[in-house]
Structure formats: C-alpha cells, structure tokens
Design brief:
By secondary structure, the chain is α/β, with parallel strands linked by helices. It has a single domain (5-370), classed as TIM Barrel (Alpha-Beta Barrel), CATH 3.20.20.30. The protein has helices at 15-28, 52-62, 81-94, 108-111, 121-138, 175-181, 195-203, 229-240, 247-250, 256-262, 268-274, 280-286, and strands at 5-8, 32-35, 67-70, 99-103, 144-147, 152-156, 168-172, 187-190, 215-224, 277-278, 339-347. Strands 1, 2, 3, 4, 7, 8, 9, 10 and 11 form a nine-stranded mixed beta sheet that branches. Strands 5-6 form a two-stranded antiparallel sheet. Strand 7, helix 6 and strand 8 form a beta-alpha-beta unit. Helix 3 (81-94) crosses helix 5 (121-138) and helix 8 (229-240) crosses helix 11. The chain starts with a strand and ends in a 40-residue tail after the last strand. Mean pLDDT is 75; it is low at 282-338 and 347-387.
Length: 387
Amino acid sequence: MMRFGYTLMTEQSGPKDLVRHAVAAERAGFDLAVSSDHYFPWLSAQGHAPYAWSVLGAVAHATSAMELMTYVTCPTMRYHPAVVAQKAATLQLLADGRFTLGLGAGENLNEHVVGGGWPGVDTRQAMLVEAVEIIRSLHTGELVTHRGEYFEVDSARIWDLPDEGVPIGVAMGGPQAVEVLGPLADHLIATEPDEEIVSAWMDQPARDDGGSERRVVGQIPISWDPTSVDAAVDRAHDQFRWFGGGWAVNADLPTTAGFSAATKFVRPEDVAKSIPCGPPTWMQSSTPSAPSGRRASPTSPSSRSVTGRSTRSSTRPPSPCSSGSAPRRRDEGPNGGKGLRRLVTDGGPGLDGTRTAGRSRRSVPIPTRSNRVDSHPVTGGRRPPSA
C-alpha cells in the first residue's frame, strides 16, 4: 500500500509552527510525518533549525494516528549512539508505537559543530554500522558495555523500552551502500528515486528477527504555485537550489555560506530541470503513482509534501484535494499557502511517506518566495531486568 506523508522541515519553520503543521497534516489525511534533524538550515534564507527530537515529542502528544519518523538522524558524531537509542525508545513510547528511527551517515553541515572533523564516506559508513549495532543492543534492555573501533559504551541500559521495539530505516545512496548497510536496516531510505538502489535492497534478505514489514522510503522535491509555473520555479530556486548538487556534494559542505557559494551560479531554469514545478492542476498529472494494488492517500494542493516513487507498476495517481477544513494562514502548513514540496514514498511491501513543511516565523506570514520544500495516549513499556 502506498501512503503519503508530510515533511516537518526543521530548516524552514520554528518548533511551534512545526507542531501545528503536523496536526494539520494529520487532519488533512496524511499517513506519515517525517522530520529532518538539522543543526543548520541548508541556506540562511530558510532561517530555522530547532531541535527535531523535542519537536517530535510534542508532535507525538498532539497527534494520534499519523506515523512519525526521523528523516534522518546521524548517530555517530553530534549524537552518541547510546543517546540516540535512549531518545528513540522514549519517543516510541510517547508515540504509542508510531515511530520509526531513520538513520544516516550524516552531513558535514550539521555534524561539524562538535569539532570532531569530517571523515571520508567509507569511515562514515563504518561508524554508522557500529552505531546501529549499539542501538539495537541497547534496545534489548540488557546491560551493554561496548569497546569498538569508533565508540565506547560503559554499562549502559535503556530503562523505558516500548514492547514493540523501534524499527530502523537507514539512508543508502547506492548499491554499495546497500551492501554495507542493508543487513542492518528494517527499511530502506533512498536518497533519490533510483531503481538500482531499490533493486539492490529488494535483493537483500530480510532481517530474520520477526520485525515489521520491509519498506522503501524515497523523496522527490516538487514546487507548485496556484498562479503560475514561473512563481513555482522562482520559489524552488530561492529555497531549494542546493538540491541540485546531489548528496555526494551536499554531505561535505560545512556551512550555509558554503551552500550559498556553491549555488551562486545556479539559475532558476537549472533548478526547474531537476525539480518539477507547476500549479495545482500539474500535481494531479505529475505526482508519482502508487504500485499496483496500493492505496494512494489524497494530498492537499496547499501543502508542501515530499513523495517517493515506486519502481513497480502504477495505478492512477492521486489527485489533490482539500481537507474540508476552514481556510488557514499560509504559514499553518497542510491547508494553507503556496509551497515547494517533497514527496516521500516507501516502496517494497508497504510504500510510505511524504514530507512537507513551509518556512514561517512566529509573527511574519510566509512571503511568496520564502516557502520551500524539503512526515495517543502515552503507554508504558516493559522495564528491563535489574543489573
């Protein structure tokens, strides 16, 4: 089944607006909310970078049905994997089993702040492998001591654990990454809609731990405007021109100034070649379609969203629709405003997710050119045995 989600773009909105966006997204019918986990925005014009985990905790309390996911957290530099294991378990309890821990090898933009340097890609992947192993060990509830190549853990235990565990998705940028990281993941997070990556993942044997159904989650940026294609292109250029560099480049640039300099000569027409741009009617014909036999949830033409693309046969694409609620301000997310969106999909058995968010400040409505794109009751969990 294909589902659509909403991206909580921490680079574009403050924490209170992000929570409002999530509530409105659930009300509009989105199935999933994913959150970026940044210390910096990509470009200074975006203007925000609140702590994603605090926001997700608030979102878990404010919503009741929509699944939640980090998209993605790096558990190797800015955060120690033992700390990630603890906060993921806590968030799963707050979300009543709706949370998936999305992990990746990180970006220099966010990880350089702790002064640890920036390793090469092979080292980053090796660090991620070790970090995932630590997280999974701690999620057993056992006392863990670890002396590894990159990390040490001294007599650690997670005391509040969800009974259903915490599924883990891992971002992978190519077949080689799938080979290294695939055996550790419950779900694939594809950094681009690349059939080769998805095929390599589908060829991997599933984890034999009785976990949840495997998913493939992907993203495609989409910029739309209710008035003209030109306005959508201008917005994409203003807010999302960094996207064209690709993750091989984006992972290594250390500052917003670096991204600004790297994209200095990127023209609006260049951005339009890599980001679909157009009015709401365009979205109906251009939104990636669901695999055969899978449900596609409606998306609102006033939301910013990210969708992924399935590599399987497709059915009729979803058409934009309104949620039936009263008109909302443009900075209130799913039901208001123009936006650059990204669609995230989860391929394989159970296609998931879209991400959506808009840039907003507390007292200032979003200007037309500053929007950009980029996914209960609290229950107790089992307590681990005492040491």
